[in-house]
Amino acid sequence: MQRRSFLHLTLAAPGLAVAPSFATMAQGGASESRKSLLVRAGADSTNRPFEFLDATFTVKVSGRDTQGRCVIFDTLRREKVGPMLHLHLNLDEWFYVLDGEFKFQAGTEIMRLSAGDSLFVPRSMAHAFVKTSEGPARLIVMHQPAGNMEEYFRIVSAMPDQRPEARKALAEKHDTRFIGPPLKPD
Question: Higher-confidence residue: 178 or 13?
Fold first, then answer.
């Protein structure tokens, strides 16, 4: 995906009108789909939402919908927890806060994000986040390209042992390298 295509998608985020953006994303290949995708509020495009790290993940756009160009999750976060400090070697990650407040680390920088803020983290940059506000919060997460992040989240969410040590080998197979502890909400 070219940078201007990514920016077009990110600028569409306030209304999350992502379906029209696929026409922009499909700039180069003859086999690219020009089909739109409508996913209603509260719905999951795969009809299989799942729970991970005390959050409900609703798949708004699956990697299968974009021929692997991206995957987009709407996550409802209830507790003040987040992933370990990690990085992805082969994909970029974008976050958009819909509700609540979060503390993020990207590289060595610590920042606070609230509703309406977004953060782009390029591949190979260490990052982590944690919810800091009271009550539920919502965070949109996009991986570009999709890679196998959707598969990783589905597999790990079904694992009986959710401790980082149990997830580490699986994460490595799915383009995720744990490199430090999770952030504390302080």
Answer: 178
Six-digit token pair at 165? 């040590």
CA 14 to chain centre: 16
* CA–CA gap between residue 86 and residue 141 (Å, rounded): 15
Strand residue runs (E) in 32-114: 50-52, 55-61, 71-77, 84-87, 92-99, 101-106, 109-114
Alpha-carbon distance values, 1 to 19, 21, 35, 92, 147 (Å): 16, 12, 17, 11, 13
DSSP letter for 80, please: S
C-alpha span between 121 and 87 (Å, rounded): 9
What mean pLDDT comes out for the span 62-77?
A: 96
With H, G, I as helix, E, B as strand and everything else as coil, classify residue 84: strand
Q: What is the pTM of this model?
A: 0.81
Per-residue pLDDT tens over the stretch 93-121 = 999 999 999 999 999 999 999 999 999 99
CA–CA gap between residue 117 and residue 98 (Å, rounded):
8
